[in-house]
Amino acid sequence: MDSERPIWRRPTTLDEAIAARVELGDAALVVAGGTWVTLLIQQGLARPAVILSLDRIPGFDGIAVSPEGELSLGALCRLTDVARNPAIRADWSALADVYGIVANERIRNQGTVGGNVCEADYASDPPAALLALDARALVRGPSGERAIPMRDFFRGHYETAIAPDELLTAIVVPPMSIGARAHYLKFTARSSEDRPCAGIFAVVEPAAEDRVLKRVRIAIGAVSATPILFEAVNIELNDGRLADLAGEGATSIDPIADLRGSAAYRRALVRALVPRAIRAALADGAA
Ligand SMILES: Cc1cc2nc3c(=O)[nH]c(=O)nc-3n(C[C@H](O)[C@H](O)[C@H](O)COP(=O)(O)OP(=O)(O)OC[C@H]3O[C@@H](n4cnc5c(N)ncnc54)[C@H](O)[C@@H]3O)c2cc1C
To answer: Atom 3 (ligand 1): residue with closest C-alpha?
Structure first.
């Protein structure tokens, strides 16, 4: 019935959008690219009175590198924009690779960087990468801007640290350490376009001497309610040590069972994929 159709609000400034958040509270559902929200509404899982669309707010779809070397991804930039951006391909190539294998081209052309992290679906790719790269989310509300480190951003299934009157404006990724290398391994259990059954993002920092890693930072995504980060220092690069590290990762997660795989399967995946992700990062070269 027409009377049940949501009203669209399309603010043209961020302040106006935040004011609408304050005014409408839970009655309004924020929409960026709409790839996820549309499904929620179509399936009757959300019946918002108001749709608060961000699509007319200029200035939040840019990608920039600051003089300090930090990468800023505007909340409204499309997943495709990240995957194809020359600066990201040059200095954060593993991150560009992650955005380039989310879903399929149609979703990547429509879905936004902000929408991907704000939906907080555990079976997503970018969250693990952003966690391993020590990124932070910039959010703005009626009392100003604050930064939320990615390790504090995801609270659980479909739950983030963003307050009901706030909006995500950007994600900031620090520069990679000199000599650091990274790689993302996505494992899909059904089709290549599927959401991940497990995703491992590895950042490694080789030491001066051969066969030693100064530091390893691994984020494990899509296996538990939120992505999990673990780190190790002074790792000898041999099969036994990498298997031990993978074992630590596998025991540190509380795996989910779903259509893509059982909890035991996911633990086994983590054991198998962590060493592969580390070796692939080393083979990939810088960034
Ligand atoms: C068929 C399909 C396959 C997919 N496969 C994958 C996959 O393989 N890997 C993967 O990582 N993801 C996958 N996804 C998820 C996809 O990446 C997201 O749907 C998309 O990135 C969401 O972006 P959006 O702009 O469309 O968000 P929307 O649908 O507009 O919004 C998503 C959520 O974020 C909130 N939101 C959006 N922007 C903001 C903001 N700036 N501030 C506060 N809240 C905000 C909305 O209120 C909503 O709750 C898939 C989705 C579909 C439909």
So the answer is: 103
Pick the residue whose CA is nearest to atom 38 on ligand 1. Answer: 115
Contact 101 CB / ligand 1 (< 6 Å): no
Predicted local distance difference test score (pLDDT) of residue 3: 55
Structural domain includes residue 58: no
Q: In CATH, what number is assigned to the domain containing residue 189?
A: 3.30.390.50
Contacting residues for 121 by C-beta, under 8 A, at least 6 apart:
36, 157, 158, 195
Q: Which domain holds residue 34?
A: 2-53
What domain count does the chain have?
Answer: 3
Place 285 in a pLDDT band, splitting at 50, 70 and 90: low
How many angstroms is it from 33 CA to the middle of ligand 1?
Answer: 7
Please give the distance, rounded to the nearest whole angstrom, from the Cα atom of residue 258 to the centre of ligand 1. Answer: 20
Residue-wise pLDDT tens digits, 113-154? 999 999 999 999 999 999 999 999 999 999 999 999 999 999
- Residue 165 Cβ inside 6 Å of ligand 1? The answer reads no
Q: Is residue 244 packed enough to be buried (19+ CB in 10 Å), middle (13-18) or exposed (0-12)?
A: middle
Domain closes at, from 108, 142, 173: 173
CA 282 – CA 204 distance, rounded (Å)? 7
Same domain for 38 and 106, yes or no, is: no
